[in-house]
Write a structure and sequence with these properties.
alpha+beta, single chain, 8 helices, about 260 residues, globular
Length: about 260
């Protein structure tokens, strides 16, 4: 008979939508959300983000974000562009809409808490938030957050879990199209391209305090990304995600693992 160990974590029920995931926005488009359209009894167009990352299956890899009253907007260019019917020169969402919340969180994540700094990054990419290329090829750590749904045909609302970014993990796209023009003027570096700072030793000490016997390296990395002090340093987060910082600490003997790679101390 094999040893069996049940933990409190095994008792946590899930919604089916993963939490604490790292994913890249592989594609984005504006289009008909057929589930919402069926419930509302009319065509409802939204922003769709197609995410690529571990733990995301076909059902939840596409996340939908409403941009308010879709009758005020028109989808153009085969889903690549959104035009405001009242004022074609308007290129921003209402900050109360789900798409508006998404963009604000992207600004904050890219700017490491400084939304204005994050906005500068997107200005340099030279795409409006009403263009699909505004979103593509950016990698984030995503959190599951409960949101109100749009009213159905009878005016009833419900709640739904949606993924929102909270930590920026890099830009996986080379400058292309209009973005290349701005890129020649202002170089935008992914956090992973920045040299390791002298304060990494102190941050490593914080990382080591997060160790629990038997925790996997992936679980330790996720705990580190959520830590309020560590996440304030995008260079360190990039080192964890792209430069295998935990593996380097194992090689140095600062972290001890078992034969299966789980952390012991």
């Amino acid at each position: 008979m094999t040893d069996k160990k049940v933990s409190e974590k095994d008792m946590e029920l899930t919604t089916g939508l993963p939490d604490d995931v790292e994913a890249t926005i592989e594609d984005a488009y504006f289009g008909d959300n057929k589930d919402y359209s069926r419930k509302a009894g009319k065509k409802i167009e939204m922003l769709a983000l197609v995410l690529k990352g571990p733990g995301l299956d076909e059902k939840n890899k596409t996340q939908w974000y409403s941009f308010g009253d879709s009758s005020k907007w028109s989808v153009r260019g085969g889903g690549t562009t959104l035009v405001n019917n009242n004022n074609p020169d308007t290129h921003a969402f209402n900050n109360k809409s789900r798409a508006g919340v998404l963009v604000e969180r992207m600004f904050a994540a890219v700017g490491n808490g400084d939304a204005k700094k994050g906005q500068k990054f997107f200005v340099d990419r030279n795409f409006w938030m009403t263009e699909s290329e505004f979103y593509t090829k950016l990698k984030f750590h995503w959190k599951r957050i409960e949101q109100d749904t749009m009213a159905d045909a009878e005016g009833k609302k419900d709640t739904k879990d949606v993924l929102f970014p909270d930590v920026f993990l890099g830009n996986e796209a080379e400058p292309a199209g209009n973005a290349a023009v701005k890129a020649t003027e202002t170089k935008v570096e992914s956090p992973a391209t920045v040299a390791v700072g002298d304060d990494f030793d102190n941050l490593d000490k914080i990382l080591i305090t997060l160790i629990k016997v038997g925790i996997s390296q992936e679980e330790l990395r996720k705990e580190a990304i959520k830590h309020p002090t560590l996440r304030k340093n995008p260079k360190y987060i990039a080192a964890l995600v792209k430069d295998n910082r935990i593996g380097n600490l194992i090689d140095k003997g600062s972290i001890v693992v078992d034969d299966e790679g789980n952390v012991l101390a």
